[in-house]
């Protein structure tokens, strides 16, 4: 899948996987489906993200809600 990660508060993009090799992740989607995932700060720590209350430097302030627009490219 491909993704774009943005801050919920202001839409600022902090990460993008567009133009790179597809990212592998298990989500209940069909090929070419698109989803918007909103990740609250408490869940940011439990996912691969590890941001949560700490944030990530100047890119992601502490306790930020994150929005990921994902598109499933292929299924293996």
Automatic annotation (TrEMBL):
Is ATP-binding found in the keyword set? no
Q: State a single Gene Ontology molecular function.
A: peptidyl-prolyl cis-trans isomerase activity
User: SUPFAM superfamilies, from UniProt?
Assistant: FKBP-like
Q: Which InterPro entries match?
A: PPIase_dom_sf (IPR046357), PPIase_FKBP_dom (IPR001179)
Q: Which reaction equations make up its catalytic activity?
A: [protein]-peptidylproline (omega=180) = [protein]-peptidylproline (omega=0)
Keyword Nucleotide-binding tagged:
no
What EC number(s) does the entry state? 5.2.1.8
Q: What are the transmembrane regions?
A: none
Ordered alphabetically, the record's keywords are: Isomerase, Rotamase
* Residue intervals of the PPIase FKBP-type domain: 1-76
Put simply, this protein is called: peptidylprolyl isomerase
Organism of this sequence? Mikania micrantha
